[in-house]
Amino acid sequence: MPDFLASLLGIEGIGWLILAGLAAGLVRGFTGFGSGLVFLPVAAQLLPPFGAILTMTVMDLFGPAPILRRAWAAVEKGDLGRLVLGCALVLPLGMWVLTRIAPEIFRIGVALLALAMLAVLSLGLRYRGRISRGMVGGIGGLAGLLGGMAGLPGPPVILFYMSRPLPVATIRATILLFLLAYDLLLMGYMAAMGRFMTEFLWLGLALSVPNMLGNWLGARLFRPEWEAAYRVAAYVLIATSALSALPVWR
Fold first, then answer.
1. 60 Cβ partners below 8 Å, 6+ apart?
2. Backbone dihedral angles phi then psi of residue 42, each to the nearest 5 degrees
3. Could you please report the per-residue DSSP string of 106-123?
4. What is the mean pLDDT of the chain?
5. pLDDT at residue 214 tops 70
6. What is the DSSP secondary structure assignment for residue 157, as one 8-state letter?
């Protein structure tokens, strides 16, 4: 254990990674999503692309654990299957693209994607058209593409799938379980591609502690009557993280 702790503390920027993990948990506790939008722009500055994504994936696995049984009871199983199938088919393509781009491009792409998502959320934009069952599979494929290239599968699902005429609890449960399935698929594909690096598995496990603390703290602090203030705080954290990754500061 001492050797393990020493190796973690020896990682360049470990303090920033711990802070980013905590902030990511806070945002998820406030809003129910967005942890990747906070953590990945920071991690992309300090870790190689596959290492940053794997660390984020492992760290984020534990957040929804207490509510998985309840989510499974509420999920729209047909939609979940279509989302996962689309993701499974396209995710390897996104990961292949990631092998072909420079780490600098990955870092900038993650930051710009986070800022774009933030702009859409801030403006309250949503897809207003009808979502067919076939389109659900396409949304899963787009999520897999972005998840493979940038480790951010959530934006397509949040922006498009929420237009489904389903109860809010069902939509939240389906998104939560889809993201869990994405995490498992990603780790499986990484292992198959020889990109599963054990050191980032341990780093993700270590960072799950401040992340779960942030989740707990965000949920404890949340008050429905202050929802607008919490949302603003979450947006500020996302913007700060994304802007820090842009090359204009270097």
1. 24, 35, 36, 179, 183, 208, 211
2. -75, -50
3. HHHHHHHHHHHHHHHHHH
4. 85
5. yes
6. I
